[in-house]
Amino acid sequence: MRARKNPSLRAALVRRLWLALALVFVGLGSAGAVLPLLPTTPFLLLAAYCASRSSPHLHAWLYSHPRFGPLLRDWRDHRAIRPRAKITALLLLAASWVVMWLTVPHETARLAATGVMAIVAVFLATRPTGPAPSDGD
């Protein structure tokens, strides 16, 4: 005889998993705000995604946060990345590529990573830098 699964218990566990992931990504994004080599925006985007599935309060807090909110709203509303964040990401990507090329012995791995990095660089470079200025700006 099989035990019946409780759907509300499963939903609660899934929600807690999403919340735990959101908090981990908030922590990583917060660390990225002060550590030069750790990105902020990707972790905050992941945190917002996870929070939207687990905690309306955390989700609202992220979007209203004075430091994190503008980055998240730019992405949500315009699919835009602020110029400073874009330049920082591209410079760190280039630095990572140089270090990888000098330290990874396998050419196949270097070429594969170069391809992925090139795709990421093109994606970043082609994102808008923000909303078009309005007449009042």
Automatic annotation (TrEMBL):
Membrane-spanning residues: 85-103, 109-126
Keyword field: Cell inner membrane, Cell membrane, Membrane, Transmembrane, Transmembrane helix
Topology relative to the membrane: Multi-pass membrane protein
GO cellular component: plasma membrane
Subcellular localization: Cell inner membrane
Principal location: membrane
InterPro entries recorded: DUF454
Protein name (database record): Inner membrane protein
Natural source organism: Sediminicurvatus halobius
Phylogenetic lineage: Bacteria, Pseudomonadati, Pseudomonadota, Gammaproteobacteria, Chromatiales
